[in-house]
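Many introductory courses stop at the sequence. We go one step further.
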Amino acid sequence: MKNIHQFLPILFILCAFCKKDSTSQVEQILLDGTWYQTAYLTDDDGDGVFTDASLPCQFGDGWKFTSNKKFELRDELDYCDTDVDSVAIIPGTWELRNNDTEIYVEIDPDFLFFNFQIHAVSDTLLELRQFNAPASQAPLEERFVLKRN
């Protein structure tokens, strides 16, 4: 009987060509369609009380996460301005971080990026939280509620 150590190099080479499915459960949920913003909530002073700060034109904005790590925010302009009959698409990239508990979205690497904490995620609900520095003019905490059918 041959020694198993003779076959280890061959096994290692074969495994190197095996494609590993590294898609996590959270990532798979994110990729499965477009998410539509239904609410934007803010806590301005850290007291845990949130107010709805949504503008009417934010309802229905589509957030799309693709498997090649591209991100699209589809700003439904016709809700804001009825004279505009097009949709503005704001492109970027995205990635999961911190053991799939955060989504990092980058629109412009030098200027516009967001690090959202995933507060809730299911097949039909995605709730993201963002915390801001107390010295900034932004609310202390923001929540984005996104849904899909």
